[in-house]
Amino acid sequence: MGSGRFWSAAGLALVITAALVSQAQANEQPLLPDLRQAPVGCPGGYGGDPALCRDWDVCMVTDAQAPNGDCVTSGDIQAVRLRFTTAEDNVGDGPLLLYGRRPNRSSADMEVRQAFQTGRGGPIPGSYDEAERATATSMYYEPARMHRHWHLMGFARLQLRTPGGETVVADRKNGFCLGDRYRTADADTLPGAVRDTASPEGQLAQRLEKSRCGYGDPRATEMFEGISVGSGDDYRFNVDFQWLDLTNVPSGTYDVVNTVNSDRTLVESSYDNNSSSISISVQWPGGAATRPLVITEAPAVTLLRSCPGRERCTAATKAGTGSVARQDDRGLGQAPNVPLTRSAVRGRSGPIRTPGSATGRNGCSSVTSALGCCCCANANAP
């Protein structure tokens, strides 16, 4: 009888021990990031109606090879560009943390590993050697004047697509310097968002906020980049290669699609929110179907609709009419449809205001919003 009670107690102890071990193992599971592509053309951390975003414009340049040429209103126009801000949020359970290393300075590229925090408040790998997972991406030092730091390759992609999904134009941008550049609009609702600066994730966030990706240090052999939960990384529309080339794009309706981690080389808890898009109408002057032989005026571009979290946006637009079909999808910014109008183009001499247009701090371009104003850079942005 006593022996039976002994073994029952021992068995219970084993069950309790197994449960504790199981719980400990569960607590040691890596916390995964979740990269969310912010609405196209919106500043980082924006939480309002995406159809009202104005961080985009159309820019005519005289040097088609320049990564960031001056916008002009006249002269030998060689290219027309649709420029727009892109921003990527981390809304997951853990930080996105990447470590790069190259064997020596004769190697141009660094191999990259992804690291994971183990449990909230738990340890975070502090080096390439401690990082758990190899990736298919790399880092390289970009010497261009606006950069001069180490870039993570292929983090996000920009494309202009037909309503059927065919890619018409792809971006030429290839590198990103990741860090905590802004706080997301919904950070306070995210369980994993940094709240305690003394915690391991809080200390990491402080490093990522200050990180300049080895600015001015092309001789570095190790590097780190990343984004904390509740933070994001953005690239303003006037940065090198933040554009799609419209020079040879026919008049019509298109989707501008922005996708983060498109090849899924980085591990996330979800890939469902990695793309956002906008539907735009492109119309060359005089109702022309294609560009003129000599470009003297940029095409008018009308924002029809913004579709955060979606790759396709033009599907809800009535073909051939430019009007927007009614829909009830939540989270989709829809601007009231108005006829295309001509607007000013921002040149070297500064912004030119047209009657009835709204001019932001960075001036207007040949972009016409479906809200009836000239789409400029966000007037409230720094």
Shape annotation: globular
- Total number of strands: 22
Order of helices and strands: HEEEEEEEEEEEEEEHEEEEEEEE
Rg for CA atoms: 24 Å
Properties at a glance:
2 helices; mainly beta; 382 residues; 10% helix; 29% strand; 6-stranded antiparallel sheet; 22 strands
SSE order and pairing:
Elements: H1 2-27, E1 30-31, E2 35-37, E3 56-61, E4 79-84, E5 86-90, E6 96-101, E7 109-115, E8 117-118, E9 133-142, E10 149-153, E11 156-161, E12 167-170, E13 175-176, E14 182-183, H2 200-210, E15 222-227, E16 231-235, E17 243-245, E18 252-260, E19 275-283, E20 300-307, E21 333-334, E22 367-369
Parallel strand pairs: 20-22
Antiparallel strand pairs: 1-8, 2-5, 3-4, 4-17, 5-16, 6-7, 6-15, 7-9, 9-10, 10-13, 11-12, 11-18, 14-16, 18-19, 19-20, 20-21
Structure commentary:
The structure is a single chain. It contains two helices and 22 strands. With 382 residues, the chain is mainly β. The longest helix is centred in the N-terminal third of the chain and has 26 residues, at 2-27.
Short description:
The protein is mainly beta and 382 residues long.
